[in-house]
Write a structure and sequence with these properties.
Helix content is 69%, strand content 3%. A two-stranded antiparallel ribbon has the order 1-4. Strands 2-3 form a two-stranded antiparallel sheet. Helix 5 (108-127) packs across helix 6 (143-174) and helix 5 (108-127) packs across helix 9 (257-277). It has one domain (2-290). It has helices at residues 2-26, 33-55, 58-77, 83-86, 108-127, 143-174, 191-214, 232-250, 257-277, 279-290, and strands at 92-93, 100-101, 105-106, 177-178. The protein is mostly helical and 291 residues long. It contains ten helices and four strands. Mean pLDDT is 87; it is low at 282-291.
């Protein structure tokens, strides 16, 4: 009963995201852009916390957020450790997103990184059959294993970058940040997308090494019964796309929508297909373990 209740809570929070958007952006409820964005982020956070608690456990979820928050914060604050300045890929944040770390990076920015990355981390693990029915760790560390983890990190980064095909142009249109030097992708420098691949890859590798040290695997919601609520990360991923898509229409930057839809939609479809393709394998594992 407790598991079912927590799953229902995630669904309710997901519905509230939609209600929040309808009330503020469609029915014009008087609420500042900053408060609206923060409300959406908090609802996303609630879903990710419940989902992560069930698939990773409280301790490992806390470590996940520490890594997934601190690396983007360091990267943003140092302009990619100075590399951004060398290639003319530096951004400037307005006050739209609230208080800033040392007056430069809004605190919500690395939080959004962490939330999106949890979705792509889990989606990548589903895609490559790394989500287990129990926390029992089965992988053996080797150079080949490390290369595989790096490759999977790049896939997670590509998922993140595909979402940013719409996030960056929309947020620039909203005035959340700007790119003084401009760029070839609707005013966004292409090096920005290198960062969107590089950061998730680093987080994915570091956290995967941590899980290896802990001898622990990420698990399906429901364990051996493997609930489809695990796929809520895909729904969150596509919900972000939908919200930014409506923002794109609202801010008249609809030309970015097709690029994001094609890429994020393709990744989401592969994850869902792989989830269902692996079902018989999980069923056999369960049967074998009972025998």
């Amino acid at each position: 009963m407790q598991k079912m209740n927590s799953n229902i809570v995630m669904i309710i929070l997901l519905i509230l995201i939609g209600v929040n958007f309808i009330l503020v952006k469609i029915l014009n409820l008087p609420l500042s852009e900053t408060l609206f964005i923060i409300a959406c982020i908090l609802l996303f956070l609630g879903i990710v916390l419940i989902h992560g608690w069930k698939t990773l456990g409280p301790r490992d979820l806390l470590v996940f957020f520490f890594i997934a928050y601190s690396i983007p914060l360091l990267y943003e604050y140092t302009d990619a450790v100075g590399f951004g300045g060398l290639v003319g890929c530096t951004s400037s944040y307005s006050n739209l997103l609230g208080p800033k770390f040392l007056g430069k990076v809004p605190y919500v920015i690395p939080l959004v990184w962490a939330l999106f990355f949890y979705c792509t981390f889990t989606m990548t693990n589903i895609m490559f059959n790394r989500v287990r029915i129990t926390h029992v760790f089965e992988e053996v560390a080797s150079f080949k294993w490390f290369l595989r983890i790096v490759g999977m990190g790049i896939v997670a980064g590509l998922m993140m970058a595909s979402l940013d095909l719409i996030v960056d142009p929309v947020m620039v249109a909203l005035g959340a940040w700007s790119w003084p030097a401009g760029g070839s992708y609707y005013g966004i420098p292409l090096w920005n997308y290198e960062g969107w691949i590089e950061i998730p890859t680093a987080i994915f590798v570091l956290y995967s090494v941590y899980l290896h040290i802990r001898k622990k695997s990420q698990i399906y919601i429901g364990g051996e019964k493997r609930s489809r609520y695990t796929l809520l990360v895909v729904v969150l991923y596509l919900t972000a796309l939908l919200i930014y898509g409506m923002y794109a229409a609202y801010e008249q930057v609809m030309y970015v929508i097709p690029w994001a839809v094609m890429t994020t939609g393709s990744f989401a479809a592969v994850v869902v297909i792989q989830f269902h393709r692996s079902y018989p394998k999980v069923g056999k594992e369960v049967s074998s373990s009972k025998e």
